[in-house]
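Course assignment 3, question 2. Fill in each field.
Student: A.L.
Task: Predict the tertiary structure for the chain below.
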Amino acid sequence: MSEAAKVATGKTGPAKIAVAGLHKSFGAKKVLRGVDLSIGTGESVVVIGGSGSGKSVLIKCILGLLRPEAGSILVDGKETVGLTGREREEMRRPFGMLFQGSALFDSLPVWENVAFGLIQGERMPRRQAKEIALNKLAAVGLEAPVGELYPAELSGGMQKRVALARAIAKEPAVIFFDEPTTGLDPIMSDVINKLIVKCVRDLGATAVSITHDMVSARHIADRNRHDS
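Answer field:
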């Protein structure tokens, strides 16, 4: 059995995501050095590490934004390293992402930020997409009038909620969280942590989070991995 196959099969059966022997360098700097990681369906895993330890690089490799020099990344048992074009886009379709800093579009109202993937990616009619967006905003504790505001009119905590609503708008099978509580005060961090747990459980999604916040890691993870 290959190393990829070994990693892809756990106690509960085939993994949703299986990373085996992953290597990624930037020039002479070796960032990932033989990373192995198996994530089961419906599991919430947190990758912990300091700045520059390779957490974001690992996520970008899984998403297909970076190509590793060596190693395997299986999603639902299918090799994804080396996919290009339409195949890569199809691989990403079941993924949702909460970006560090929220990464909202300043020129779009809140509801359209949430519905962006539905309108642009799924070609959904705007009225239908708006209805879904408002439902997802309600799921993260924001009332419908907030949907008509612009990101600049929101607090940092509200922006993070909007970003979470966008991440779950397409009801993804896998959600990635990049430093979800960075820049938030302890009270709002706790609110966001609880919302993440609730949204992931409601969807039955697999979750992969990267953070250096140990409080957040303990709250949202079924299992932690220290990346160094």
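Instructor remarks: Residues 193 and 216 are 6 Å apart (CA to CA). The chain has nine helices and eleven strands.
Grade: pending
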